[in-house]
């Protein structure tokens, strides 16, 4: 169905940062870009609004961005769901319902996340970490939990990109002349201590966020000067867009760092799942989510 194809492509473009927070999405431009009529595009935008990725405004349909309070609530729910699916996955493993191939896929994602972190590639570590958590959700065999996690992950990714862009501008890491890219590890190191104080302290922030959903304060591949200084995204082109603007929502609270214990935390979770130990999986996932 054309509406399904339009939905999938627009969702990917928003989560990838091609349409950053605050970007205006017009039916005419999107229909032209996708080579289809406005009717499936209109349906796709309606579904994206249901997912919380876009909303209607006086400027038309724009890519939405959670404010600090909503992001905090989203991370709390995401953390709880990650704990739940780890427990459910262990129960299914105990019942012999998980294939060895599925477990290997999760273990490979964890190993790739740790390897990426060790070599200082925050962007790759973040992506593999996200993939691992989704694979665990698939192992849980609960489609409702998986759908909820996907929606939360998408919205938190929009917030992560917007926060990374703001941090880059605040720390002077952008290049007003053009398209300088910022390495996530360097960016995390440059975020001033005042950020932690303004949000209740770095420890409080980390304990409140899900270790997987928000890890990696990087903006690799993002043109950090694509948005105006006030953080409000302009009208989005129908072409691939780079940048991560904002619309006055999530601030520095969404700028995370990667835990050096990420690999060990992953191993504890996967070992408990592989052993079919629901209680141990629940505990390991909870420690990972809440620090």
TrEMBL record:
SMART domains: FCD (SM00895), HTH_GNTR (SM00345)
InterPro entries: AsnC-type_HTH_dom, GntR_C, TF_FadR/GntR_C, Tscrpt_reg_HTH_GntR, WH-like_DNA-bd_sf, WH_DNA-bd_sf
Single GO MF descriptor: DNA-binding transcription factor activity
Domain of life: Bacteria
HTH gntR-type domain span: 1-66
Pfam family, one: GntR
Protein name: DNA-binding transcriptional regulator, GntR family
UniProt KW keywords: DNA-binding, Transcription, Transcription regulation
SUPFAM superfamilies: GntR ligand-binding domain-like, Winged helix' DNA-binding domain
């Amino acid at each position: 169905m054309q509406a399904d194809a339009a939905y999938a492509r627009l969702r990917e473009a928003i989560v990838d940062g091609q349409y950053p927070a605050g970007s205006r999405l017009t039916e005419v431009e999107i229909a032209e870009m996708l080579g289809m009529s406005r009717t499936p595009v209109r349906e796709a935008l309606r579904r994206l609004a249901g997912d919380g990725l876009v909303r209607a405004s006086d400027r038309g349909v724009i890519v939405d961005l959670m404010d600090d309070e909503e992001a905090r609530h989203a991370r709390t729910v995401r953390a709880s769901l990650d704990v739940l699916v780890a427990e459910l996955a262990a129960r299914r493993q105990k019942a012999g319902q998980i294939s060895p191939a599925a477990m290997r896929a999760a273990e490979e994602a964890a190993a790739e996340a740790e390897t990426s972190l060790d070599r200082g590639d925050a962007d790759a570590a973040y992506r593999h970490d996200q993939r691992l958590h989704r694979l665990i959700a698939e192992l849980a065999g609960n489609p409702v939990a998986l759908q909820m996690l996907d929606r939360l992950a998408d919205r938190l990714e929009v917030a992560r990109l917007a926060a990374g862009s703001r941090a880059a501008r605040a720390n002077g890491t952008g290049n007003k002349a053009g398209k300088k890219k910022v390495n996530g590890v360097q960016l995390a190191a440059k975020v001033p201590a005042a950020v932690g104080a303004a949000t209740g302290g770095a420890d409080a922030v980390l304990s409140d966020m899900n270790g997987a959903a928000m890890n990696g304060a990087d903006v690799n591949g993002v043109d950090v000067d694509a948005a105006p200084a006030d953080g409000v995204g302009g009208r989005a082109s129908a072409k691939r867009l780079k940048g991560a603007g904002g619309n006055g929502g999530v601030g520095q609270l969404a700028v995370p760092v990667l835990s050096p214990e990420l690999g060990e935390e992953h191993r504890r979770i996967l070992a408990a799942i592989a052993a079919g130990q629901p209680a141990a999986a629940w505990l390991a996932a909870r420690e990972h989510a809440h620090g």
